[in-house]
Amino acid sequence: MVIEHVADPAEFCKSLAALTVPNGATMISTINRTMRAYATAIVAAEYVLHWLPKGTHEWSKFLTPEELVLILKRTSVTVQEMAGFVYNPLSGKWLLSDDIGVNFIAFGTKSSEE
To answer: Which of 22, 34, 54, 78 is the most buried (most CB within 10 A)?
Structure first.
């Protein structure tokens, strides 16, 4: 799920958690709310390289990893692991990375005490 495109991330996560069985897994991807992410995902991707239509992203809708962890915690989902992913323009592939400064994925499990 790419959470920066939903109207209400907290409500979305609540619905996602309701659909997840106890001890079940969920994964959410988003763009970090950093200046580097703004420069990459909005300025470069939308205005310079024209990879995406202008207005695809709103910086205010990007979530920090800490915000996403808190939102998920409130829905009984505990983030177990987080990873960044980066695009390699030479290979045309996305690769997992330790760098969560722009794009990141959170993997979590729902509490069994629901």
So the answer is: 34
